[in-house]
């Protein structure tokens, strides 16, 4: 399943869920903010000020990456996870309390750990560091 088809199907599922029909058995569609950006020399810079809440999640959509990156803030700590399933490389979705793959049902915790298979390998963590008022994600 390519990214475009997945997004189309996911949007269809969200519309159906809103209408009271559940296609995937997932109870909620989240409204996590998406930041679109690009990388330079394998790094993605994000303005730290874009994270306003004490606990917050954002999806980072990098122009030359196939899948989004989930960045989570909790207090002064940030973490980043690449949203590609380790089972068969399909996109995975942040639900607010975890990460799920709609292709075959794998579930992951917010640290990328496997909760339910068929995936057996944790999601890839993206190294993240602070540079002045920016976060730097190392994607290559
Ligand atoms: S590709 Fe994600 S569970 Fe199979």
CATH topology: Rieske Iron-sulfur Protein
Strand order of the largest sheet: 1-3-4-5
- Hey, roughly how much beta strand do the residues contain? 25-35%
List the bound ligands.
Answer: FE2/S2 (inorganic) cluster
Quickly count the domains: 1
Please report the distance between the alpha carbons of the first and last residues: 24 Å
**CATH architecture call:** 3-layer Sandwich
Top-tier CATH class: Mainly Beta
Shape: globular
Number of strands: 11
- Main sheet record: 4 strands, mixed
The H/E string reads: HEEEEEEEEEEE
Mean pLDDT: 83
Low-confidence runs of at least 5 consecutive residues: 11-29
Give a short synopsis of this structure.
This protein is mainly beta.
Give an overview in words.
With 140 residues, the protein is mainly beta. The chain contains 1 helix and 11 strands; from the N terminus they run H-E-E-E-E-E-E-E-E-E-E-E. A 4-stranded mixed β-sheet has the order 1-3-4-5, with no helix packed on it. The radius of gyration is 15 Å and the shape is globular. Bound molecules: FE2/S2 (inorganic) cluster. The site of FE2/S2 (inorganic) cluster has 11 residues, from loops.
């Amino acid at each position: 399943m390519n990214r475009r088809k997945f997004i189309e199907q996911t949007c269809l599922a969200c519309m159906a869920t809103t209408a009271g029909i559940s296609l995937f058995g997932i109870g909620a569609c989240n409204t996590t903010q998406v930041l679109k950006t690009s990388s330079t020399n394998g790094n993605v810079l994000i303005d730290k000020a874009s994270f306003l809440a004490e606990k917050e999640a954002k999806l980072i959509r990098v122009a030359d990456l196939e899948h989004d990156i989930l960045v989570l803030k909790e207090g002064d700590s940030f973490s980043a996870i690449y949203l590609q399933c380790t089972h068969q490389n399909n996109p995975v979705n942040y639900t607010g309390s975890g990460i799920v793959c709609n292709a075959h049902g794998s579930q992951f915790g917010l640290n990328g750990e496997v909760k339910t298979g068929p995936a057996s390998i944790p999601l890839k963590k993206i190294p993240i560091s602070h540079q002045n008022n920016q976060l730097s994600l190392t994607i290559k």
